[in-house]
Amino acid sequence: MYLTQSLHKVLQESPEHTATVFGDRRHSYRELVSRVARLAGGLRKLGLKAGDRVAILSLNSDRYAEAIYATFWAGGVINPVNIRWSPAEIIYSLDDCESTFLVVDDTFSPMLEALLEGSASLRTVVYAGDKEAPRDCHDFEALIRDNEEAGDALRKNDDLAAVMYTGGTTGKPKGVMLSHANLFCDALGSQAAAMPTRSITLHAAPSFHVAGTGLILQATARLSTNVIIPMFDPKAVLEAIQKEKVIEAFLVPTMLRMVLNHPEFANYDLSSLQHLLYGASPIDSTLLNRARQAMPEAKFLQAYGMTELSPTVTILTPEWHSEKGFETGRIMSAGQPLPMVEIRIVDASDQPVAPGTRGEIVARGPVVMQGYWNKPEQTADALRGGWMHTGDAGYMDEDGFLYVVDRIKDMILTGGENVYSAEVEEAILQLPQVVQCAVIGVPDEDWGERVHASVVIQDGTGLELDELMAHCKTLIANYKIPRSFELRGELPLSPAGKLLKYKLREEHWGDRDRKVS
Q: What structural domains and CATH numbers belong to the chain?
């Protein structure tokens, strides 16, 4: 199982089929494979060796997709950088997995000086923008133009393909190690979900996210035309669907709501859209019904998973996004496991529980990560007993439908992004007036959940939300910053002095059956 296989196959099956569309640039699959092979040759000439990490800091583009495949072709490992991170967070991820190469576009090239000065591992920068390459950077197009097509390294199976960073439960992001086999099996999963071949796929979710990277790999494996927009924008989504006659798109529920709410929504022809995938957070029935009425040609499909699972383990098929789904209640489920995946619900002792009983969701199969980069203890804990422990609480019914109802791990899901409260708490506690703090997710109409902080401060001091946000902005990404907070005299503690966050959550979630949004 090697991730460049789809490129070799398409040269035999559909070499002139359009591979990528980005603005005015269009490339056939024959052109794409040639560009990938030439760029791989350039990377090797610059010193890339098998297993070296190549970070990519860029908005979505055709070059982003080419950089992914060229890294694989050259024998390297991708490290897609979260574009919403602060420079300090980016530098941590570069050095943590010893990324020696960085591909950067126009939007993020102004950060280069800070990154090069702060990173101990970074030594080679490839500029993938449209202007003149900055000093000491190698031009992306020049590398393609000036190099011959290199042979495919054909790294495969358990060879490392990607280090993708997710939030850390102890305050630092964790590098999730995904192999060629992991990501290859996820691409096969999209075919098991009966997604079409030779489709036209819209890429609006960020490519640094495992869902974005995964969609590139899945769509290419299905010989799809990849229509790419730089970043999510409701109007850009509507324009792309109409202009390119997009057949399938992936949007998290927050994005879908913004598209439906766009004042010009009714002016666009979306009749080509046949498949709308969503994930990263559950969808509420009101939003789903609005979307079904507004886009009657589209079939809806939900995917559930996480970065550590490459990322998908269950799907709720279009069959259940229907009146039958509402009548049976299965529209509230995350669907059934993919063919290559096992799901269990276990108790606190990791023993399986009966159908309908709540416990932790664990998964086993070829999509499960290799582990966390340089974090053997956290890896052993997450993969104990051979099962990936998701930290999500749920139950399964008699027919194997999975229901996600809460979180065991200290994670907040806001607008499709994971935020681990320990990272935010670590930042807040650096304010001199803060004695204690607890960060939780609370319900939010627009973002599903928002980051909320409960803070105890020193007597005689004060704290305003603007001050808290400004401080956090210097340390963590914008989406992790609390959007609301409260000052408290004390935080709820157990007799042993352990913080009882569930009591804080109860104040906001009440008696809702599902405490995730």
A: 5-231 (3.40.50.12780), 301-407 (2.30.38.10), 411-509 (3.30.300.30)
